[in-house]
């Protein structure tokens, strides 16, 4: 069967489009190196028609399909299982920018376009595509949509769900749904695109998208601000929201252990405060007009709050230096060793209490644990990572127990155990515990309706 | 069967909760008086448990359910058919504000709460709930969510879909789904709430919601601006977006025939321009800070564009007077007589061409037609209504032909035949023509999965 399938598959694209053997290695291991899989082959379609033909073939042969974008999933969402019976379908060769409609503030792109290429295309049209995160240069729009990715500008612009107006999707049987509309309002039936955004390839493969663009801001202001703690940070956020509203694009919380990790692993990065303050917030504002007006506004709020130690970036390179600190935290963690990572959200009002109570519970169970807490406070989203004295993969033995402590504190506040990274393989087991039976039943009904043979990215997302 | 059903229904709430006979009349006619229906009874549950018990009963007896909020649908979406075999379920007695979490910028409300009551509760907590439209005092949040309603602030804040973080829904079999989370980020499975927003009661009944709040703006600026035409209006919008970004809450286009209708039916309303300009835009900005700074910014952009005739509101009462003109257009139309109404959207870049070409096509077929065009230019959404010399219901004889002309022009620009008013009964027949077979099949799969006995608001929304 497999030989017949592969022979037919080879007729659906050019010779460079089908990889087997060692050429597939890079596609079969996730970027965190936690999940390794096998596949019948790697298919690299060049356009929607090829994706559709491949899915139709897979449907006839009942071959499972694992879609992959830039292979930057943090949850093993794009890695096949070890059976070797699935087709890995990479969108990397389908990466064009179809169209920019500056008057409509929209851009139409193929799924394999990298986030950075979309940002650049928008910039060249005098517009902003605001999604941004560390993997921008390698992640692809299809994957970003399929995981409803977030990043550093969610506070103002929302996550990928908020940035998409239309989709083209190839369904499990190879049917093409063309929903490439560029409309800001359209109440004509169920909003089908919402089904596919965040579904991690389990309902179909996103092939093209119409995305929202925004006017490119001309003024920026950045500050790095020592604060007494998470409650003080939250109060500052509200003062700033009252004064500056949607000009706030980022409001990031950084705890002292993050800065200590940076000092250790990136000694060349200037440490702006000595000694390191217990808590910092990194604030970014953007607006039309001149930098100076925006910087004055930010300074006004900070000084009205008595935050005299705040550092306001005086020029773009200082702003970049502040951001380099924030963006180097994940790499400093990696250099430090293996940690148990969490990407949680709670209502903003519950953040200070969560940080206090969860820290207490963890240290009671693991008195030597080190907690690396940082993230998008403005979205109620924390990256909350735990080091034990053993910095090797041996700590994964404690993962389940540590997770149970943290996710209990999250669940008590009606929070989420995966705010922006999704489910993939890594968090699939948590669905059963932290989503209700009614919710799981609804999700299974949808999955069954759209993919009755369970061919789309099986073994991910929904628990068995 | 019906007697047994009604007897059991009566045990599920208090005596005031079940209406029959003449007491049901007000629930069985839509507000535009185009659709009259009949029902077994009107049930008025007081809480989620009563809704659930009623839907479970209906499910056992295979009795159809028509949910109704404030009965303000413009498309007959909340009116039962003439069979008299459905239960009309009104949420009007389930209208509390459950909770305001100002630190999380969220409010939790029951489905029957009017939009105005939610706006007022937000205001009392120093926050803004930004959804707003003419029926605010009588429409209910459940209906607003079920129809994904829009209104005058969509440009900045989005429609109801963008304003909801969590839902509680009673499903077709009476199961309660509690998704009342107040999180800005949560990537743990399909985003189920998206299914119910805009589904017009065909998949379940929304009983409670967690809604987003915003800082209340302290500064406002309003201008009424004569422009050369739709293209000039669009250019002004882009200049203003570059200069003021998200401070623009409304950007409304008004054509001369609208102003003429106002002059005729509301002679007491001051007409700010004589003669009436061919086209006007009504602009509203909101921000933190002082009115004067925002008004200066607006004036700067207008005068840089050479729009010397622009009127800037000098105080709140003048702003209200400008808005009263805009908001009186629908009532002036009603006083003028019966028109064929449309609520369409196209990409913003296609608006000028649409207005020109569609007007030409209509006047070729109906040389005496009068076109009343106005609406939310910033969202690409026009209300586009046609008077024929006969101002009586007789014009409905031409409705199908007029619609065919207009919707052809809309479809050629990949627009929508219902931007914000939804489908209901009025536009159900259009679904078959203007949504693709793939889209309709996907919608039917979802409907079948969640409501296999077709009990939820049958005869609406999806074509047979």
UniProtKB/TrEMBL annotation, chains A, B:
One annotated GO molecular function: catalytic activity
Protein's UniProt keywords contain Oxidoreductase: no
Keywords for the protein's UniProt record, in alphabetical order: FAD, Flavoprotein
Signal sequence region: none
CC cofactor: FAD
One annotated GO biological process: respiratory electron transport chain
FAD-binding PCMH-type domain boundaries: 35-216
Membrane keyword on record: no
Family statement: Belongs to the FAD-binding oxidoreductase/transferase type 4 family.
Protein name as annotated: FAD-binding oxidoreductase
């Amino acid at each position: 069967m497999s030989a017949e399938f592969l022979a037919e598959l080879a007729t659906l694209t050019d010779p460079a489009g089908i990889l087997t053997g060692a050429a597939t290695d890079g596609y079969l291991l996730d970027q965190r190196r936690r999940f390794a899989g096998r596949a019948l082959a790697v298919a690299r379609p060049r356009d929607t028609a090829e994706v559709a033909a491949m899915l139709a073939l897979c449907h006839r042969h009942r071959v499972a399909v694992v879609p992959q974008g830039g292979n930057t999933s943090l949850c093993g969402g794009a890695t096949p299982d070890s059976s070797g019976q699935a087709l890995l379908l990479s969108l990397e060769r389908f990466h064009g920018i179809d169209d920019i409609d500056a008057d409509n503030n929209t851009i139409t792109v193929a799924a394999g376009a990298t986030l950075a290429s979309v940002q650049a295309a928008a910039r060249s049209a005098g517009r902003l595509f605001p999604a941004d995160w560390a993997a921008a240069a390698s992640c692809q729009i299809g994957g970003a949509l399929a995981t409803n990715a977030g990043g550093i500008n969610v506070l103002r612009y929302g996550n990928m769900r908020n940035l998409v107006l239309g989709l083209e999707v190839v369904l499990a049987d190879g049917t093409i749904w063309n929903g490439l509309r560029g409309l800001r309002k359209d109440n004509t039936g169920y909003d089908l695109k919402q089904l596919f955004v965040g579904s991690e390839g389990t309902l179909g493969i996103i092939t093209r998208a119409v995305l929202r663009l925004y006017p490119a801001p001309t003024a920026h202001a950045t500050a790095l601000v020592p604060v007494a703690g998470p409650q003080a940070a939250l109060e500052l956020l509200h003062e700033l929201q009252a004064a500056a509203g949607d000009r706030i694009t980022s409001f990031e919380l950084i705890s002292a252990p993050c800065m200590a990790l940076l000092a250790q692993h990136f000694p060349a990065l200037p440490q702006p405060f000595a000694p390191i303050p217990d808590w910092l917030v990194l604030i970014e504002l953007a607006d039309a007009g001149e930098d100076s007006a925006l910087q004055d506004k930010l300074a006004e709020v900070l000084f009205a709050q008595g935050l005299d130690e705040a550092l306001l970036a005086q020029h773009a390179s200082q702003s970049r230096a502040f951001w380099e600190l924030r963006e180097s935290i994940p790499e400093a963690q990696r250099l430090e060793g293996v940690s148990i990572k969490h990407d949680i959200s709670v209502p903003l009002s519950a953040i200070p209490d969560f940080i206090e109570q969860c820290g207490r519970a963890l240290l009671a169970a693991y008195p030597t644990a080190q907690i690396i807490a940082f993230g998008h406070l403005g979205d109620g989203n924390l990256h909350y990572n735990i080091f034990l004295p053993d910095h090797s993969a041996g700590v994964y033995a404690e993962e389940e127990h540590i997770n149970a402590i943290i996710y209990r504190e999250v669940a008590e506040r009606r929070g989420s155990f995966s705010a922006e990274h999704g489910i993939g393989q890594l968090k699939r087991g948590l669905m059963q515990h932290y989503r209700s039976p009614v919710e799981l039943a609804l999700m299974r009904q949808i999955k069954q309706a759209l993919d009755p043979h369970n061919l789309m990215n099986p073994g991910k997302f929904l628990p068995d």
